From TrEMBL:
Gene giving rise to this polypeptide: rpe
Protein name from the UniProt record: Ribulose-phosphate 3-epimerase
NCBIfam families named among the record's database cross-references: PRK05581.1-4, rpe
Cofactor(s) this protein cannot do without: a divalent metal cation; Mn(2+); Zn(2+); Co(2+)
Similarity section: Belongs to the ribulose-phosphate 3-epimerase family.
GO molecular function, one term: D-ribulose-phosphate 3-epimerase activity
Amino acid sequence: MNSTRRAPLLAPSFLAADLANLQAETERLANSAADWLHFDVMDGRFVPNISFGLPVLQAVARYAKQPIDVHLMIEEPQNYLAAFRDAGASSITVHYEACPHLHRVVQQIKQLGLRAGVALNPATPVSLLEDIAADLDVVLVMSVNPGFGGQAFIPNTLKKVAMLKELLLDTGSDALIEVDGGVNMSNVGPLVEAGADVLVAGNFVFSAPEGPVATLAAMRDHLAGLELSLSPSRAQ
Ligand SMILES: O=C(CO)[C@@H](O)[C@H](O)COP(=O)(O)O
Ligand SMILES: [Fe+2]
């Protein structure tokens, strides 16, 4: 483990929050160990589910204290980038599989002043990012098939994160590695050891009997106890 590691960031996913009480959910996360708020947008086309979109993001952003990390699981995301920025996004991640003109979309996100991310489905190899890695702020590795919360973590993700870490080093990219899907206390340690910088967690955080604030604090403590040599993150 090298000595320039960044402290991992925690990003609870609103998909698993109480959607009937979004103001309360956002306010209780404001004073938690959450570093980013993860916001999953699904269109019923790119993925077989529909979640929420612009007006809900606008509502959450009114109460959010942390940056909002928007994960677009939609076709033709290029048509909605400015609208998501205006609604409160700090970062936008689009799917590799949804973008034939990925380089252009990434530049558009950056021109809007946002952090630009690209997500990979479980069956999409990291090697496909070789020519664009240096342009990215975030690579999101899906550790479940996108579309639903509460699925089981795909174990091959650990190998994939390690391969991505190598690719980022080889291409001179300082992109953060974000992992999304089935993240819980038993896999955050191995994920961080493999190279993960941002850990998205939905059901594990919101369904815990202790509630999200205590669960995020426990995750933070667990990560701090892993005896990694970490330095403060640049990614707030
Ligand atoms: O993007 C997605 C699902 O497509 C995720 O962000 C989920 O919302 C994570 O939820 P859990 O798997 O942690 O319950
Ligand atoms: Fe997500």
